[in-house]
Amino acid sequence: MNVSLENLTLGINILDRIWHPDTVFYNGQQSYLHSITSHNRFLRIAADGTVLFSQRLTIRATCVMHLENFPMDLQRCPLAFGSFAYSTDDVLYQWRYGPAASIELAPDLRLSQFDLVGFPLTNYTGVVKGGNTQYY
User: Fold this and answer.
1) What pLDDT does residue 131 have?
2) What's the pLDDT at 1?
3) CA separation for the pair 78, 56 (Å, rounded)
4) Residue 82, domain extent
5) 115 burial via Cβ count (<10 Å: 0-12, 13-18, 19+)
6) Considering its fold, how many domains does the chain have in total?
7) CATH (domain of 86)
8) Contact of 122 with 63, CB cutoff 8 Å
9) Full-model pTM
10) What's the distance, CA 7 to chain centroid?
11) Which of 4, 56, 74, 78 could serve as 40's disulfide partner, Cβ 3.0–4.6 Å?
């Protein structure tokens, strides 16, 4: 019998025993990991060695707003994340399907006093103590 395993998905029990990225949201103010019926996270290892670590989070991020020209102003509110302790030599974050296809906004999204005119996705690598850090 010739059996081919393309992906191996590991459960939460294994996650605590192996290394996974120490992702931090730099401008995060409050966050929580979803765990309604079970912890919403998993690790998948592909046959080519690619590792996918995924978890469902809700993040409340801070955003400095400049309201000098309100209501005719334009605000930019980034969600900046990267590794807490590792440099780009150790950890690289990539959008799984490319930036444009990886973020999806709810079609019924409403902001009572604002119009969302876009959500550009960028990759930035900066220098912090200890080495280069990648930001999204």
Assistant:
1) 54
2) 45
3) 19
4) 7-64+71-135
5) exposed
6) 1
7) 2.70.170.10
8) no
9) 0.67
10) 22
11) 56
